[in-house]
Amino acid sequence: MTPVDNDEISQIHSTKKRKVNNGQSVISQSEPADSKWVDKYDATGLVPHYTQAAQVPEHLQKYFSQRRRYFSLYSTSPGCLLDEEGWYSVTPELVADQIAERCRCDTILDAFCGVGGNSIAFAKTCQRVIALDTSPTRLALARHNAQIYGVADRIEFILSDYISFAKSYLSLPSFSQPRTENSHDTRKIDVVFLSPPWGGPSYLSGSTDVIPGLTLSTRSKDPVQISTEEHPTYSLSSIQPIHGAELFDLTRKITKNIAYFLPRNTRLEEISSLLTEEQCRVSQSSTTTPAIAEQVEVEEEWMGTKLKALTCYFGGLVDGQADQF
What we know:
Blueprint: H1 6-10, H2 61-64, H3 67-70, H4 84-89, H5 93-102, E1 107-110, H6 117-125, E2 128-133, H7 136-148, E3 155-159, H8 162-171, H9 173-176, E4 191-194, E5 214-216, E6 224-226, H10 244-252, E7 258-263, H11 268-285, E8 297-303, E9 306-313
Parallel strand pairs: 1-2, 1-4, 2-3, 4-7
Antiparallel strand pairs: 5-6, 7-9, 8-9
């Protein structure tokens, strides 16, 4: 795991391209796949693998109690591993699987992979996963956990910050120049999953601006009103490492197909403006190419009776917009 550079990105070669696979890559979420364990990627000992509540620091107790929601194979030998940030930032497995089902494609980029929860889920439904993280520890933990699930061979783990990776990818000749029949193409990234740092467990403190509660529609639930009396609203300006809107704009240069994982108290008007402001910029910079009519689909992610997060789908990931894939 070394820092990314253009040479490394250019070696992510292309394979056959398609919108969705035929389902043969789906792996059971309850049993590890039959894949050879590679000892050198065993990260046992890098961080503690807690087996009893008495071993767990007090501030992580509530996360430990949900360990099998995060990884159903948590206790499968040699045991899934999470660092402190991983405990409070990993996506629950059922939620990750739901998102992965929506994001079926040839190649998906997990821009902030953390300890691998989403990357593992994507490896069940996509042909190839590119997983980035700035922490060598978390990247090692992600590879370790992927081995337990038997999908590590489907994931390319790269030590890099997403901003640098994206700019390097966009600067490659095979991406920036017209393709020909004989050109050697870099692997086309079909979908980008954005789950950037929200600011730690304190994200529910939100921004200082309070707006009236907003109603959002879901695929599987009745409309639910999020009360700002419980939590202040969260602004995309709190996204790290750059403003959430800037992160979106940069990613849209790679692909229109984005799944954006955001706090449950994110301002819906800001999510909507990601598209409306982009369309305004397009119309201002070009008088000949009108912006394509597009919608964003906001999906609520529930665990039992608790709303955990929002996943915002763009481009061909939106129901009814498959032609934009």
